[in-house]
Amino acid sequence: MKRFNELSDKPVKKREEEISKYWNDIDLLHKSVTTRDEDKPFIFYEGPPTANGKPGIHHVMARTLKDLVCRYKTMEGYQVKRKAGWDTHGLPVEIEVEKQLNLKNKYEIEEYGIEKFNKKCKESVFKYEKLWRDMTARMAYEIDMDNPYVTLENDYIESVWWILNKFFKEGLIYEGHKILPYCSRCGTGLASHEVAQGYEEIKTETVIVKFKLKDKDEYFLAWTTTPWTLASNVCLTVNPEETYIKVRQEDNIYYVGKVLADKVLGEDYEILQEMKGKDLEYMEYEQLLPFIEVDDDKKAFYVTLGDYVTTDDGTGIVHS
Hints:
Blueprint: H1 12-25, H2 28-34, H3 57-75, E1 83-86, H4 91-101, H5 106-112, H6 114-124, H7 129-138, E2 144-150, H8 154-169, E3 182-183, E4 188-189, H9 192-197, E5 207-212, E6 219-224, E7 235-238, E8 243-249, E9 252-257, H10 261-265, E10 270-276, E11 302-305, E12 317-319
Parallel strand pairs: 1-2, 6-9, 7-11
Antiparallel strand pairs: 3-4, 5-6, 7-12, 8-9, 8-10
Helix pairs in contact: 4-6
């Protein structure tokens, strides 16, 4: 006696299409939501793609993982609402339109006209929507594509202003300063993933510089990959928890990270003292290039602490 129907001998692609059609015909996605208890929700937020770019294999991977979690939680009895979204703002949209219009930078956009440029951006954001829909259906990613949120629509924009206003009234928004990556061509700040897209591993020349301690014939050995910034040096930074050593090599006395000493100095040196990075804090040194006078009330040219300093390369001491 057969317990299961035998698999069809139709091509896999044909079988996939038939199963997908059947799921759509019975409205499987919405049934999986409406048949679950709304008092037992599992909250899912779809990170929206930008539809003016074609979907890639990395989108398939991300959507597979999200779909697995949502299906699993649905099978556990949770109500999992899955609303699709479209990201219609940001550099990917603008750069694509710049290519279409042969514009090279922010100034050419302004000459072309910001209102006209924005109109072109709005026209382009759904350029590959059909490809996204086809990919979503083909991989059976269960999500409501017919009622998406769209970041350019007023309802969405007003919801963002509403939540920002709520944060402000509750004292959760503050004004501060932060150094961010900036694109001089685009004339805008960059997100971390946008910076990562242009990341390349290259071989580069590095420099180890002697910084003389104030009133002592001793030197901090600091490492930098950007020697052109040495003129603006105001402090040195060490890792508070790393071990540092004071050594004598020939007639010189140096401070260097212990695990890097052999790499920097070779084996011909004498250890005079061992200490933690935090023991070096506030030690002062002479200005490397004394072409600018520093006011007495301005603290500069001393050792600071930073846990971002590593002992993977260099000397364990970086200039800032």
